[in-house]
Structure formats: C-alpha cells, structure tokens
C-alpha cells in the first residue's frame, strides 16, 4: 500500500479529489472526525481495515490519502508512549 500525505492543510475537498483521481480506496480527512483529537490507533485500524479489504479482493496494491492536517489532530501523548515502548523493547 502506498500512503500519500497531501499538504492541503484543511482543504478536505481537495484531498478527496486527489483520492478519487488516484483511484484510492481510502481517503482520510480530519473533517470525518469532527473537532476531536484522533488516536493513532484509530487511524491505524482504519488503514488496516482497508488493507484487509484489498486482500479479500485479491489485490496486492492500494493507495491511501491522508491530509497533512492530521498531524495537528493526533494524540501526541499516545505517539510519545509508542516511541517510549519501542525504545524500551530489548533488541532481538
């Protein structure tokens, strides 16, 4: 799966147009989540669901478009804890 990061800030309609033109099965825009903080897990679950659907369609490729505005809406505490948990894991 190719993940495209669109730099349109809050122009969700522009990202939807890009997704449609690219034939992307998934375009995520912050407007879909109202005015709340979005968890990284929630976004990852949505991406994972899209990958699973593509797998059932017997396709080994896909495109997901995410608007750059997500960067300011993600739960930073959650992201920091993910970084700490990774750093705390022993090397394999």
Bin the helical content: 40-55%
H/E element sequence = EHEHEH
Main sheet: which strands, in order across? 1-3-2
Please report the total strand number as a whole number. 3
Distance N to C terminus: 27 Å
Q: Flag low-confidence runs.
A: none
Count the domains: 1
How big is the Rg? 15 Å
> In percent terms, what proportion of residues is strand?
5-15%
Mean pLDDT, to the nearest integer, reads 77
Number of helices in the DSSP assignment: 3
Secondary-structure-based class equals: alpha/beta
Shape: globular
Main beta sheet: strand number and arrangement?
A: 3 strands, parallel
Report on this model:
The protein is an alpha/beta fold and 92 residues long. It has one domain. It is 45% helix and 14% strand. It contains three helices and three strands. Strand 2 (26-28), helix 2 and strand 3 form a beta-alpha-beta unit. The model has no long low-confidence stretch (mean pLDDT 77).
């Amino acid at each position: 799966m190719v993940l495209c990061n669109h730099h349109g800030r809050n122009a969700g309609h522009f990202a939807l147009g890009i997704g449609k033109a690219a034939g992307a099965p998934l375009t995520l825009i912050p407007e879909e989540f109202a005015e709340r903080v979005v968890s990284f897990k929630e976004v990852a679950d949505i991406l994972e669901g899209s990958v699973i659907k593509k797998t059932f369609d017997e396709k080994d490729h896909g495109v997901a478009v995410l608007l750059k505005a997500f960067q300011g809406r993600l739960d930073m505490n959650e992201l920091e804890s993910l970084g700490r948990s990774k750093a705390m894991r022993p090397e394999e």
